[in-house]
Description:
The chain has one domain. Helices cover 70% and strands 2% of the residues. The chain has helices at 2-8, 11-36, 44-62, 65-89, 94-117, 143-147, 152-170, 172-182, 184-189, 194-220, 232-242, 247-269, 274-277, 280-289, and strands spanning 131-133, 149-151. The chain has a two-stranded antiparallel ribbon. The protein is globular and about 60 Å long.
Amino acid sequence: xxxxxxxxxxxxVLAAALRMATPLIFTSLGGIFAERxxxxxxxxxxxxxxxxxxxxxxxxxxxxxxLGLVGAAFAGGLMGLVHAVAAVTYKVNQVVSGTAINIFAVxxxxxxxxxxxDVAGTSxxxxxxxxxxxxxxxxxxxIGPIIGQHNIMVYFALVLxxxxxxxxxxTVWGLRLRSVGEHPKAADxxxxxxxxxxxxxxxxxxxxxxxxxxxxxxAHLSRFGDxxxxxxxxxxxxxxxFGKWTPFGALGASLLxxxxxxxxxxxxxxGIPSQxxxxxxxxxxxxxxxxxxxxxxxxxxxxxxxxxx
Length: 309
């Protein structure tokens, strides 16, 4: 029993879990921005996919993966803007709008990949963001192998969790954002621009999801593949709900899903059929979304278009 525990819970698996959790952290933080403002963002998966493709494309043509990050955030933010126009201005059903973005992202990335590179499935290799070693920390027993050496985006994601927490719960802007998601009419009464706040929140949501996608194509890997997000946007959505719409809660849930992903790779090494073990992260997602692991209360105005009187 002890041998199995060591096999599945060791520094290698935990480091892999942190890497697997990184795109979920970015994207779930993006989901928090949108849904705290009262807008459901089912389109996180599509925004991730667009970000992954744009990050790869920018890095390919410029040779600068840092510019790839900028391109990914811009493309994701643009998809967020589309969602905001549909959901906030035209009051389209927010689930339908997000679903349309997901379908559009799959189609347009496949088309552009074949049109630009004349290949199907996988893009050419591009420059990757650097791996960073933290001096001294990487030499600490147990802790060092887990957090001492990762791609720079892993550390960026962890820092961003703290920043978003401070923004939401320690600043006036964060209070305004949350008030719009809880009681938009009251927020409007005291002079808060509900429509602008929701626009900025959904655009930020898309930009962060785009960064989550860029991690896959120019940090974790060095290429783009058809549908490479593989449902991670929906897993991030589950992490956000599981984490009760809080940054640290989303971080914990993302790490849990990342650990499940790392474990399923270990299980494959034992000869268990890959089709079965690859289901583990998604089963955990469904369990979380079904509410079996703690009930979460969403913002009161979520999914409700605001009608200004």
